[in-house]
Amino acid sequence: MLGRLYLEHRDFLRRLLLGQAVPSRDVEDVLQDIFITVWRRLSYLVTPEQARPWLWVIGLNHARNYRNRLRYEREVLVGFAEELPEQGDGASTEVLLQAMFGMFRLKRFLGKISSRIRDAVIPYLEGRSIAEIAASLGIKAKAVYSRVRLARKRLEMLALA
């Protein structure tokens, strides 16, 4: 039964993983993890007709877990420049895609926080000191620390969701 599921659905799961932003170099490893889970839970599959939706859910869960692990294993630093490095700089397509995804998430996060917090966070991310930010905003350094800490907490909450 497991062999038949593998032969019939591996291409479907491979496309699913690629569509879920799992890099092609890691797709086979994640696919192997999926089928280990399938082997462990094969008794829960009632009929072969239910296999594709069941495998789809398992595949989505493994793709999500892969992205979560990746987030903790390595950090991609993204600047605020609108243009990305060119291919001539030796940057791979994958690094560019990760940078674009990071930029998209950062812009979305900055759009969700209040302008008071954003005014303190953006200069902080650009590398300015707390004292410089406080002076430019006309507030105390303690208030800048507080706003940056609040932004970090909100970002952590979004990452967990």
Helix content: over 70%
Task: Give the uncertain stretches in residue-range form.
Answer: 74-84
Main sheet record: none
**Approximate strand percentage:** under 5%
Q: What is the end-to-end distance?
A: 36 Å
| Average of the residue pLDDT scores | 80
Structure described in brief:
It is built from seven helices and no strands. It is elongated. About 7% of the residues have low confidence.
Helix and strand arrangement:
Blueprint: H1 2-19, H2 24-40, H3 51-73, H4 93-112, H5 115-125, H6 130-137, H7 141-160
Description:
This protein has seven helices and no strands. The chain is an all-alpha fold. Helix 1 crosses helix 3, helix 5 runs antiparallel to helix 6 and helix 5 packs across helix 7. It starts with a helix and ends with a helix.
Features:
161 residues, mainly alpha, 7 helices
